[in-house]
Each structure stands twice: as structure tokens, then as C-alpha cells.
Amino acid sequence: MKKIAILFLTTVVFLTTSCFDDARVTFSGSLIEFQSAITSSLAVGKTYPILNITKGTSIVTQVNLLARQSAQDVTVRYSVDRTESTAVEGTHYVLTDGGSLVFKSNTSTTTTNIETRNLATMDVVLVLILEGNETIKPSENYKRIGFRIR
Question: Which of 9, 114, 145, 149 could form a disulfide with 34 if both were Cys (CB 3.0 to 4.6 A apart)?
């Protein structure tokens, strides 16, 4: 009787668990995002964070690639959101990388390189927006980040 009960329970367990569908979800897109936009709180009334930067220093912020790593270097673009920014190019900052970011081969991160000028007499805000390229699009939730230059 014991053998029959064990056989019955084994059969029931096998039949009820062997037919589950594979529920894993695999991301197959190609996106870029600002790391600080993920890890920082949103500014009041904005859809992006605003981080404080001391004037005269460099703005170096990480950009993540959410895609399969490429065997070749991949270039994406970013720009200044002129409607949200109060900082003036040449007066308050210089895009030393020209608004181009390069993901070196077999990597998933890169950084911006922006020099701030020590000329600002009052706080200004610089807002960056990721543009991507033909195949890599910016993440809608994490494509903007602001910097208050103090």
C-alpha cells in the first residue's frame, strides 16, 4: 500500500509540474539611459533629477547601454535640452566630447565629458537629453538629467 501511495504522489507531482510554460522574459531591445537618472530622485515638478555641480569642475556622468555588447565601438548622441536649461554654452559649460558618446567594443557603459566654467555669478541649470542613434534609442524614463551649476 505504501508503494502505491508513493507512486501515486510521484505521478501527481510530475503531471502537475511538467507542463508549466517558461515564464522568463527576455529583453531584446537596444536602449541607453543615464545612470544618475535611475539612482537619483526626481526634481520637484520635473521628470528627471537635478544634481548639484560646483562651477569650474567637470560633469562626468555614466550612460548605460541596455543591449547586447558590440564587437565594434558604438557612437550615440546627446544634446542640451535648450527649453529646460538656463546655462549658456561657452559661458557656463563646454561639451568637450561634442555631444558624442562612444561605447568601446564589448562594454556597456560610457561617460559624458562636460567642462563647467567658473564664470557663473548665479546658479544655472544644464539639462542633457540622450538622442541615441539609428539602432539604439533612449529610454523614455531615463533619457534626461539636469545639473545645477553652483
Answer: 145
CA dihedral of residues 33, 38, 43, 45 (deg, nearest 10): 70
Mean pLDDT (the chain, rounded): 90
Whether the Cβ atoms of residue 107 and residue 74 lie closer than 8 Å to each other: no
Which residue is associated with the grid cell 539611459? 33
Which residues are paired to 93 by β-bridges? Answer: 89, 116
Residues in the chain: 150
CA dist., res. 137 & res. 143, Å (int): 9
Domain 29-149, what fold? Immunoglobulin-like (2.60.40)
Determine the Cα–Cα distance for residues 3 and 9; give it in Å rounded to an integer.
10
pLDDT digits over 120-141, tens only? 578 999 999 999 999 999 999 9
Angle at Cα 125 formed by Cα 119 and Cα 130, nearest 5°?
Answer: 120
